[in-house]
Amino acid sequence: MPLSDSDFMRYSRQLLLPEVGEQGQLALKNAKVLLIGVGGLGQLAAQYLAASGVGKIILADDDRVEVSNLPRQLLFDGGDIGEYKSVRGSQKLMQRYPMCEFQSITQRLSAKNINRYIEGVNLVLDCSDNLPTRHTVNQACIKANTPLVTASVAHFTGFLFAVDMQRAPKAGCYHCLFPQDTQVTQNCSTAGVLGPMVGTLASMQSLMAMNILMGVGKPFGKLLRFDGLKFSWHEALLSQDPACPVCRIYT
Question: What is the CATH number of the domain that holds 190?
Answer without folding.
Answer: 3.40.50.720
